[in-house]
Structure formats: structure tokens, C-alpha cells
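Protein in question passed on here:
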Amino acid sequence: MKLLGITLSLAFLFSCHHKTESQTVVVKAPTSVASKISPDQAILLTITEKGVVFILLGDSTPKRAIYSYLDTSNNLGLTDSQIDKLNQIDTIGVALKDLATFSNAINNQFNQIGISISDTLNSELSAWLKAFVGAYGGLYPLDKHLILKLPNNYDHIDFKNIQAIFRRSGVTRFRIVTNAE
């Protein structure tokens, strides 16, 4: 009986460690990576090498709800007219305090320096993320639309800080893309 057990054990070990060509494993990308979304539905957060964020809101995103949420939660004092003007803009890269001035700029001729992510205590990125979650009515409808674009040489430590900002904002699911070289 003992000999049979040893023989079965050895047979099992050989079958696990010895693979032939016909036993190769096929790996498929998970659907969360392989699926594509339409650019007009995307919220693209592009982080530059300087550590600032530019936000691109696709045409089908709930821009009015996002700006209204930002206005009420941060006491920005935006008028309906200013929110209407912001609705027509695709890319935002200004501090929250400058949104009203940015909306009144003629033909968007305003120097956008990006949204700073270095201030982790009072992160404006966190305010934007909370506005996205509020506008979409929760994280799970949002996670299909939120894309984080990083430069190829982005520091691992900096990325951990970005993840912490996302987590504090209630955002735990998003997609990541990098620039092709």
C-alpha cells in the first residue's frame, strides 16, 4: 500500500513538472484590459512628468453634474452661465479657484498650468475625483469611464501617492494607460 502511494506521488510530480508542446498554457487578457470604450464617454486624467494633471472630459460625460458638484462642495460660486461655458470645454488644467476666470476667458485663451497633485492634504485631484463619483452616482458606473494616463518613466513612489489620493476619494477602480514609445 505504501509503495502504491509513493508511485502515485511520483507520477503526480512528473505530470506537474514535465510539460509537452501540447500542454502549453494560453493566456488571454482580462476583459477589463481588452475592452475599449468610446473616447466621448471617457474621463481621461493625464499626469505629466512635471506632476500635474490635465483632465479631458468626453462629450458624453455628465459635465454639468461634475461642475455643479465641484461648485457646491468647494464653494466656488460658479453661475449657471459659467457652468454652461465650462460644459463646452473638453480639457481642464486649472486650479479650482480659477474655474470661474477660466470659463470667462475668450476662446479659452487662459494659461492652463495643470492641476497640482503635490499637495496631498488639500488635493484638488481628490476634489475632482469626488465630483466624478458624485456625478456618476457612485463608483461602479464610473469605473468604466475613468482612465489614468501616466508617462512611461513615472516613478513608482509617485504612483503610490496617486493611488492614495484615489482611495481617499472613494475611487478604487480605474484603467491605466501609458504613452507608447
About this structure: The mean pLDDT is 74. The first helix runs from residue 2 to 17. The chain has one domain: 38-178. The helical segments are 2-17, 31-34, 63-74, 80-87, 99-104, 124-136, 139-142, 156-168.
